[in-house]
Amino acid sequence: MLKVFSHYFPSHTLQQVLFDAVLLFVVVLLAVGLSAGPGDPEWMVFTPSALTFALLMVGLNTAMGLYRPVLQRSSRQAFARVALSLVVSVPVAYAVFGLLPWADLAPHSLQWSVVLLLSSTLLMRGIVNQRQASGLFAPRVLIIGTGKDAATVYRDLTRPLQKSVEVVGFLRAGSDERPEVDPRQVLAPRGLLDIVRELRVNEVVVAVRERRGGVLPIRELLDCKLAGVRIVDLSSFFERVQGQVRLESLRASWLIYGDGFRQGLARTCVKRLFDIVVALILLLMSLPLMLVTALLIVIEDGAPVFYRQERVGFGGRVFRVIKFRSMRRDAEKDGKPRWATSNDDRVTRVGRIIRKLRIDELPQLFNVLVGDMSLVGPRPERPFFVDQLAREIPFYNVRHCVKPGVTGWAQVRYQYGASVDDAIEKLQYDLYYVKNHTLILDTLVLFETVRVVLTGEGAH
């Protein structure tokens, strides 16, 4: 994992992005140069144009989720991602090719050749990402611990998203720990530094919560760190690999003294400007769709078109969120708040479609413009449920230190859920966002939202 602008990216994914960018740059440069006709090719024009084209295409498909590995045996998901990349990239590539300064120097047939090259690259990348291909320079990881946490760490490191990591084994820590890992992978007890050198370990993950009474070899861990080996605790591991701040490893002192959770006037102003500009653009683009949605709601179930509901926002302040009405008018006729479920019988036929495609969220762009919400942030919850969750979940109110969002990190990383357990999982993603939010992460979440909706990988 590499940390870029406070957000972690898998190292093998960056390798794939770099490889495809270089491949496109070199092939396009050669194709355009050879097609320029007799005489000296204008390399001063071709080179920056080819680089711009390659970076734009790879960046666009990164945003579309092409380089994010899919679960094994998920052919539908892999096909959806490749299809989305092709549908978006091919027309964009054709248009960009014509705008760059080489258009007058290269024949029209070359334009289609480059588009064909791009399509082939996307198809090959989709096939490769569906397989268990290891990355270059895969780090070798040693896990200290053999209990439940160690098993969780091993499972996360060996899933497709981390397929470029090689786990060399486990080292037992403490005699009272109940083993929950494959005993064949547990290494014989000996000096930690000797194991690290013998197995060429690059990283040690400390998957142990109880550290008192000499459970951990502190001195040897320090020696390993001084020898250039990366030492990672559970909190940092889950943040880096899962994009979560885990509640069970969270302490108030870590929130206070740890990195992240930075707020400031400059960051607030930049985020606000970003929200206003993007919200206005999205409103203009979606206006025809919103008018059609309003008409369909009226035809099926009559007025009102919009649904206003109290939600808890920044600093615990209550505001009224605006959504397209997707449920029957008597959805809560008894006056009792209920969790919305994925197959809720209160949802209308039109409502089921607009909830799946998240069209019902579009009116919240008005909440963004007036300042009650941001484009990206933790989803706002109803006061009734906030009171309940704050009593049952520690640190729940930390999510209210930023504005709630139309979409969020939890929404693109976790499936639909409507229970306290689901709220706990989503809170861990929300805490990661609160800790690390930047414009880069906001932009990534917006693109991920588009991908999730278009590919059907997520539910409302």
UniProtKB/TrEMBL annotation:
All residue ranges annotated as the Bacterial sugar transferase domain in the record: 271-454
UniProt similarity note: Belongs to the bacterial sugar transferase family.
Pfam families registered for this protein in UniProt: Bac_transf
Naturally occurring in which organism (per UniProt): Thauera humireducens
Bilayer topology: Multi-pass membrane protein
Keyword Lipid biosynthesis: no
Coiled coil (residue ranges): none
Name recorded for this polypeptide: Exopolysaccharide biosynthesis polyprenyl glycosylphosphotransferase
Transmembrane residue ranges: 17-37, 43-67, 79-103, 109-128, 273-299
MF GO annotations: phosphotransferase activity, for other substituted phosphate groups
GO CC term, one of those recorded: membrane
InterPro entries found in the cross-reference section: Bact_transf (IPR003362), EPS_sugar_tfrase (IPR017475), Sugar_tfrase_EpsB_2 (IPR017464)
Domain of life: Bacteria
Compartments where found: Membrane
Main location: membrane
Keywords: Membrane, Transferase, Transmembrane, Transmembrane helix
